Predict the 3D structure of the following.
Amino acid sequence: MVRFRQIVFLFVSFVIGCSSSNSPDITIENVWSWPVEAMQQDDGSSHSTGVIYLTIVNEGGIADRLIAIQTEVAEVVEFHETRKQGDMMMMQRLEGAIEIPADGQVEFKPGGLHIMLIGLKRSLNPGERFGITLEFDKSGEVAVESEIRQP
Ligand SMILES: [Cu+2]
């Protein structure tokens, strides 16, 4: 009987151990933005742009996809990548979702992937924070705050 219980216990531990890696396990780290003084046009619209950097860590055994990001501080949010073309650094818009690999991470950082804020509705002042919501295919919505600062 004791042996049977031990076997059941081992089996249950095995199932629990596996189930934790059958889904993505997403955490968002080091979320920050450069300070920007937003310029308002005469008609109230804004041509000012900003940027968000962050690291997405996936400790789960299944990949996820970052579909979109929402924030109240900008009209439009896009995924961009900075690439070197000849001697020029060019910014390119990435279409579609960003793949977050299983047991891996994706880093948005200066000179690489970044989150572009187009049409800033207000200035991003050093020391302040603003809310952003990341939308994942499997993990759903994750809300975090971006800290406005120098790197
Ligand atoms: Cu950009």
Notes: Strands lie at 26-33, 49-58, 64-71, 74-85, 88-93, 98-100, 104-108, 113-120, 129-136, 140-148. The domain at 23-148 is CATH 2.60.40.1890 (Immunoglobulin-like). The CA atoms of residues 6 and 12 lie 10 Å apart.
